[in-house]
Amino acid sequence: MPQSLSRTAFATLLLIAFMMGANHVAARLAFDHGVTVATAVTVRSGITALVVAAIVLFARVPLRLQARHRKALPAIGLLVGVQSLCLYAAVARLPVALALLAFNTYPLWTAFWARVIYGHRPAPHLLKAMPLMLLGLALALDVSGAASGLGAGGHWARIGVGVGFALAAAASFGLALVFTQHETAGLDGRVRTASTMAIASVIALVASTTQGGLHFPNAMAGWWGLAGLTFLYGTAFTIMFTVLPRLGVVGNSAIMNIEPIFALVLAWVFLGQSIAAIQVAGGLIVVATVMWLGLRRG
User: EamA domain: which residues (predicted)?
Assistant: First the structure.
């Protein structure tokens, strides 16, 4: 059975999930007012890297890297940069909750990459959960187009690109997790995070050159969105790597996978986004399955 959580630890995990969900809602607000995806990732990742680096220096965390760490960190940073760009691109094109639900397939991608690269066989419970997760995702995305009333062709013409970006984000994040697990053992999480965020920021800055450089908000609401996504993301990551270790909680605890539910409610309140009841049911299936996978041991 999973280790029981204190009330403080449980509340902290819920707070992180709330902030990460709110971060994506703020990002959509920024995108709707002139901010490009590359600009958002550049600002968010760059400031987060500076904050975590300051924590590393203040805490005097040892910076000695093994040879495999030097090889793995650039690859992980590149993958997280791609993941960040793709996920925000999905958020810019889809209802926020649907983008996050499609991204929440990353446990399947993690198992896939572990099998392909390291020869690890997927755990039996993951194979059992896979059909349920895919069913939930099919309902959430309304693959038949019935809930939208557009039919399959019209519906996928509208959401197909966004779903593709979300799945690409899940695939790249799954690969990053596999490399992190196998290639960065013994490396302090704060050092890894500072490096990853710095590289992701550079990747996004380079990507912005294909769009004529950085594009900042054209209205005050966009500035609130950009400031909000940066503050929420940076704060969530800072708590994840400074507070959670003291509470004895794993940073990627399954409880935080409730993020799409928070995003669904916040997007409805602040953006006026809503999805059909059958899609909500599908989303709950995905979230519950991912949480079960994360809470299960072995």
Answer: 12-140, 162-293
* CA–CA separation, 261 and 224 (whole Å): 22
The ranges assigned to domains in the chain are 7-295
C-alpha–C-alpha distance, residues 190 and 102, integer Å: 28
CA 242, CA 52: separation in Å to the nearest integer? 9
**Residue listed under structure tokens 């999930």:** 17
244-287 per-position pLDDT tens digit: 666 655 444 567 788 999 999 999 999 999 999 999 999 999 99
CA angle 199/240/208 to nearest 5° reads: 25
Give the CA-trace dihedral at 175, 99, 48, 106, to 10 degrees: -20
Rounded distance between C-alpha atoms, residue 161 and residue 141, angstroms: 13
Residue 168 near residue 89 (C-beta atoms within 8 A): no
Q: What is the pLDDT of residues 187-220, one digit of tens each?
A: 888 899 999 999 999 999 999 999 899 999 999 9
What own/partner pairs with CB < 8 Å and gap ≥ 24 does 294-297 have?
Answer: 294/107, 294/252, 294/253, 294/254, 294/255, 294/257, 295/2, 295/254, 295/255, 296/2, 296/125, 297/1, 297/2
Can you spell out the DSSP letters for 17-31?
HHHHHHHHHHHHHHH
Task: Tell me how far apart the terminal alpha carbons of the chain are, to the nearest angstrom.
Answer: 10
For tokens 């793709």, the residue is 86
Compute the distance between CA of residue 119 and CA of residue 75 in angstroms, rounded to an integer. Answer: 20
Nearest Cα residue to 21 out of 253, 265, 286, 254: 265
Q: What is the DSSP letter of 146?
A: T
Specify whether the CB–CB gap between 237 and 48 falls below 8 A. Answer: yes
